[in-house]
Write a structure and sequence with these properties.
Length: about 425
């Protein structure tokens, strides 16, 4: 359900967004997706911490203007795009496919269209999108879904991953909002759900689903980013600049205080903090960096022919759609793909365990995590381990384990684990690990 959250009550019809009303008041409307936690630095976390409003207050002391911010919350990027086309949202955040659809649909407006100005978060392999099935499902691979119904938000990044990963396998795609699809999965009206962060992790954590397909298997970057109406950027360049600075503030806060950031997002969204921390914590599935890196630009360009082939867009000049000049006024972009939020040690194996009443604790490897759980005699609140092939951070309890010499290797999917040996449950892995 869409929730409209207002910092102040604005009469936008009188003056249009971005134009100063009487008394020098400038309205700014932000569209975001609270539960799409790969956008929290331009949405939920940013809003909660008030970084943007704080910076606008400082700006107002220089300009003599008052800036009134409205936050509008949506489940997906499509309604944000519709509102931007109508001139009712100035700045929005959404996933890669919705961003490209946004650019395509507004390019006919020429200079009155939109521009992508920053990244919120990304995963270089595509693990932000996944396909889950009910825990009792006999499916072990996407091919097992042939002829069945799969819920997805058509035009979303999750839908794109599904279509690409299916190949020649034919399924019936039910176009549903994430929450509707989750209910359909539980009721048996669909046999699988293909969605973006954080829905797959949420359903698996709640033991309402198991992971069938990890988007990292595609090895194609997936990202979310910030988009602005170009007329607003031209009329209020200083406001856009302060938004990007505030987004950087939120990003730095997430990196330096990851657990607190996860707790803030969990409280605001109703998501379990363990799920938020899976994605946004150290070595999380999402890497937060505003930079419009070459590898991400390349991925967006490669997405365009695919979106055209499935009828989602007509055409798009990605180089024109991306405008990093405002960002360069705020921060020096980087091409480095290293996650700034690190557990330390070897990121390919570094793991983390969280016991009740304690802070999350980094351990050297998945095997070390198992040994620590055994020696502590405590049941962990949650454990996080990286997939032995893709590196995708996942719940230790819901991973599929394989013994390899003295080590126990975790995998996000049963199919991936089965290729490496006999598949073990978490409890079986614990019993083999010793202390």
């Amino acid at each position: 359900m869409k929730r409209v959250l207002l910092s102040t009550v604005l009469l936008l019809a009188a003056c249009g967004t971005g134009e100063a009303a009487s008394g020098g008041e400038v309205p700014v409307v932000i569209g975001y997706q609270s539960k799409t936690i790969n956008t929290v630095t331009a949405g939920t976390l940013l809003r909660d911490k008030g970084f943007f409003e704080q910076r606008l207050t400082e700006l107002g002391r220089k300009t003599g203007k008052t800036y009134k911010v409205t936050w509008q919350d949506y489940d997906t990027g499509a309604p944000i795009t519709a509102q931007m086309i109508a001139g009712k949202i100035d700045i929005g955040s959404m996933g890669d496919f919705p961003l490209l659809i946004n650019g395509s649909r507004t390019q006919k407006q020429g200079d009155d269209g939109t521009r992508m100005v920053a990244v919120t978060g990304y995963n270089a392999r595509g693990a932000l999108n996944m396909v889950v099935v009910p825990p009792s499902s006999p499916a072990r691979a996407l091919a097992d879904l042939a002829g069945q119904k799969v819920s997805a938000s058509v035009g979303s990044a999750g839908h794109g991953t599904l279509v690409r990963a299916l190949g020649d396998t034919k399924v019936t795609v039910e176009n549903q909002q994430p929450s509707v699809g989750a209910s359909a999965l539980q009721s048996g009206n669909v046999q699988a759900l293909a969605q973006f962060v954080a829905w797959p992790g949420l359903l698996v954590h709640q033991k309402q689903a198991k992971l069938l397909y990890d988007g990292a298997a595609l090895n194609l970057p997936t990202l979310h980013g910030t988009v602005v109406r170009n007329p607003f950027a031209q009329q209020q360049p200083e406001v856009l600049r302060e938004f990007l600075r505030a987004q950087l503030d939120a990003t730095k806060f997430l990196h330096t205080r990851p657990l607190e950031a996860a707790e803030i997002v969990a409280k605001a969204t109703g998501l379990p903090v363990e799920v938020v921390y899976l994605y946004n914590g150290p070595n999380g599935i999402a890497t937060f960096d505003l930079s419009l890196k070459p590898v991400l630009r390349k991925a967006l360009k490669e997405d365009v022919p695919f979106l055209k082939s499935i009828g989602n867009i007509d055409e798009l000049d990605v180089d024109k759609f991306i405008d990093d000049k405002p960002l360069k006024d705020v921060v020096e972009p980087t091409e480095d793909l290293t996650n700034p939020a690190s557990l330390g040690g070897d990121p390919k194996v570094a793991s983390e365990v969280w016991f009740d009443g304690e802070q999350p604790q980094a351990v050297a490897s998945p095997t070390a995590l198992l040994k620590l759980v055994n020696s502590s005699g405590k049941k962990p609140r949650v454990g996080y381990v990286p997939d032995a092939e893709t590196g995708t951070r996942w719940f230790a309890e819901h991973a599929f384990w394989v013994r390899s010499g003295a080590d126990l290797l975790p995998f996000t999917t049963e199919a991936a684990a089965a290729k490496r040996g006999q598949v073990l449950t978490f409890q079986q892995a614990l019993s083999l690990a010793g202390k």
